[in-house]
# Entry
Amino acid sequence: MMKRRKPMSLFSFHKPSKSFSEFEKGIENFFDGFSSLINDNMPRVNVKEEEDKYTVEAEMPGLNKDEVELRYENGYLTISGEQNQENKVEEEGYLSMERSQRSYKRTIPFDDENVDDDNISANLENGVLYINVPKKTPGFEEQGGKIIDIE
# Structure
């Protein structure tokens, strides 16, 4: 009597070992750290579309209006800010000086044909930049880029 052989498989499936899974998790955690570094340099932004305008709210903690620039050009609203801090501490026989620089930049696309760039307005209150981006009314002629004053 002949023994039957099991059919040969072209593919073999193996469960990944526990050590491989741990390695994979370590790689994911490593790259998660980089994404938080990148996101810390981008202000958090909410954009809301209404019938006659867009409303943008951007978190700009610790910045005053002189440290923020708001520019609208060719359908893109760019929010940028830069903060330079210097902390000097002098105690008896001890001198410490720390400097830090932080910059933010975020660009938001809009339908340029629909934006009334001459009437964009903004104000900065308690670390939040509020931007009003009105929509064009029919028949409005397109203008060039513009820097928006912050109130």
